[in-house]
Design goal:
single chain; about 450 residues; four-stranded antiparallel β-sheet; about 20% helix
């Protein structure tokens, strides 16, 4: 149940900004002002109120609202809106990156905001009086992801969370005057020395149409010499993005098995503008699979990577990508691990929970349209399972409401007919991904065994 907020419920609200004299309510498509004692909200009108408002917002005592939008190609960035008139002023048009978060200092003089730059968080400071950026101290923490940010009441220190290859999400503070960074928490890493974990390298390659695709490469420990086998791990979504945070148990592949990890952000990923985001929609679906083919072309250009030993893996939509890659590039990979992935968009649409179908049709296409249905039949990995000649491991959750377990089950049954080695793990008490610790462990152990058997040998 939502909370009543002047005529609508908070389950329709994505953000609130509060000052002593006003509350601004933000939905994804509109702004509303609620003054103390008022019984009704008032819409904020004015020229070009931006569409696609983001939850990152702040409100000054003088009625200036700072909000992130996705109105432009790269999110529209940070915008200032006068609550009284609705007049807006873009403040970060020079930055071609999305604004992920922002915070207003207690004295109202400075906005701290975070941009997503190729998946890496960058901290910026903006002078509210001039509307211009001012120099922000370098954090010196390496590539990583900044989480929640907030100002100390005194106005000099900014608190934030930060996750990277060598730290889980820990709390830090920055003195914006001196540039001094203090770490306030040390997350548990099970006695391991996280300082020795592999730092990621941003890599880029050209795809079939000349477009540049990027990803993050983690190389194994230095004691492993010669070209290293590779696991390509594809994110889900598809409107998602891999950002270089903490790898947790995936460090085992790097530190103990000597396997390199590549996390690609293929077309359709967030963080690279609206055009890039839509490049895999509907009948363009397999163009993102071609980005993986281009990555397989790039791997041999690296003398530190072994193009003869590559495994593809991914979860959810990344699972579909894994199955599709296994059908298209079976002669170029050693094996594949599909985790709660889609094997046929038609059966997926028919079985996924009803509340999700219309949303998924916007991204994938409407299976009720004969032309789209025919396209789904054409690209379904299930219908090309005879091309999967390398070992496959499929993981499913019996209670998955999003990608029902039958997607994996039908793929396993079909691939088995080819005589291809297939492993199948289905948890009866899990849904879309394993959430219980004992089940996560149970999934990890056979995955490592699969890697040892089919990638490393």
């Amino acid at each position: 149940m939502g909370v009543d907020c002047g005529g609508f419920t908070l389950n329709a609200v994505i953000g609130l900004a509060v000052s002593d004299s006003n509350v601004v309510i933000v939905t994804s498509r509109a702004l509303y002002s609620v003054r103390p004692g008022a019984s009704q909200r008032q819409p904020i009108h004015g020229p070009a109120i931006p569409q696609g408002l983001q939850p990152a917002i702040a409100l000054t005592a003088s009625g200036q609202l700072y909000v992130g939008t996705n109105a432009g190609e790269f999110g529209g960035g940070l915008t200032r809106i006068d609550v009284a008139t609705g007049i807006q002023t873009p403040l970060t048009a020079h930055l071609e990156w999305d604004v992920d978060d922002l915070a207003l200092s207690k004295d109202g003089r400075t906005i701290a905001f975070v941009t997503n730059e190729d998946g890496v968080s960058a901290l910026h400071l903006l002078d509210t009086a001039t509307g211009k950026e001012k120099p922000a101290p370098k954090l010196g923490l390496g590539n990583g992801v900044i989480g929640a940010i907030d100002w100390h009441p005194a106005g000099r220190e900014l608190a934030f969370t930060f996750a990277s290859a060598r730290t889980p999400s820990d709390v830090y503070s920055l003195d914006v005057t001196t540039g001094k960074v203090d770490r306030w928490t040390e997350s548990e890493t099970g006695g391991l020395d996280a300082a020795g974990f592999s730092e990621p390298e941003l890599v880029r390659w050209k795809s079939f149409d000349g477009r540049t695709i990027s990803g993050w490469l983690y190389k194994p420990a230095a004691r492993f010499t010669g070209p290293r086998p590779v696991i390509v791990s594809i994110h889900g979504g598809p409107e998602g993005q891999y950002q270089p945070g903490f790898l947790a148990r995936s460090n085992y592949y790097l530190s103990e098995l000597g396997v390199a990890l590549i996390y690609p952000n293929v077309r359709g990923s967030t963080g690279y503008g609206k055009t890039f985001l839509k490049l895999d929609n509907c009948v363009l679906r397999e163009d993102s699979v071609k980005d993986i083919g281009a990555l397989l072309d790039w791997v041999p250009t690296r003398p530190d990577l072994d193009a003869r030993r590559i495994m593809i893996t991914g979860g959810s939509y990344g699972g579909y990508m894994t199955l599709a890659a296994a059908t298209h590039f079976s002669d170029r990979i050693r094996c594949a691990v599909d985790i709660v992935g889609i094997s046929n968009f038609i059966t997926f649409m028919e079985r996924t929970e009803a509340y999700r179908r219309d949303l998924r049709r916007v991204e994938y296409g409407d299976e009720r349209d004969p032309k789209i249905r025919a396209f789904f039949e054409e690209i379904a990995p299930l219908h090309h399972a005879d091309k999967i000649t390398k070992p496959l491991f499929v993981v499913a959750g019996r209670n998955d409401p999003r990608v029902p377990y039958q997607e994996g089950e039908q793929m396993v049954a079909t691939v088995k007919k080819n005589g291809t080695p297939v492993w199948f793990l289905m948890a009866k008490d899990e849904g879309h991904g394993f959430s219980k610790k004992r089940n996560q462990d149970f999934q990890f152990y056979p995955t490592v065994a699969f890697v040892q058997e089919y990638l490393l040998k």
